[in-house]
């Protein structure tokens, strides 16, 4: 329980730590196990997973757009 007068501080995690947690999750370990082992919440793990999937999707869309753009340029030539 939090003591009166003390503000709870937020912990910050670097990208490498987040990527390792996501790797653990994709390797078959459960979010419950990871959260207990590392002392982080399951919700945080799922948030990082969803953010990572969004980044991958955005990168894939950018690659697809770049490829389509190059094909159109080739066609115009």
UniProtKB/TrEMBL annotation:
SUPFAM superfamilies: Homeodomain-like (SSF46689). Gene3D superfamilies: Homeodomain-like. It holds the Pfam family HTH_Tnp_1. Signal peptide: none annotated. GO terms for biological process: DNA transposition. One of its GO terms (molecular function) is DNA binding. Residues 57-77 are annotated as: Disordered. This is Transposase.
């Amino acid at each position: 329980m939090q003591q009166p007068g003390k503000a709870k501080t937020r912990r910050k995690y670097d990208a490498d730590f987040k990527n390792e947690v996501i790797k653990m999750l994709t390797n078959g370990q459960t979010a419950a196990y990871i959260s207990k082992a590392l002392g982080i919440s399951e919700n945080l793990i799922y948030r990082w997973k969803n953010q990572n999937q969004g980044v991958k999707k955005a990168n894939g869309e950018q690659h697809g757009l770049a490829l389509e753009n190059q094909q159109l340029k080739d066609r115009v030539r």
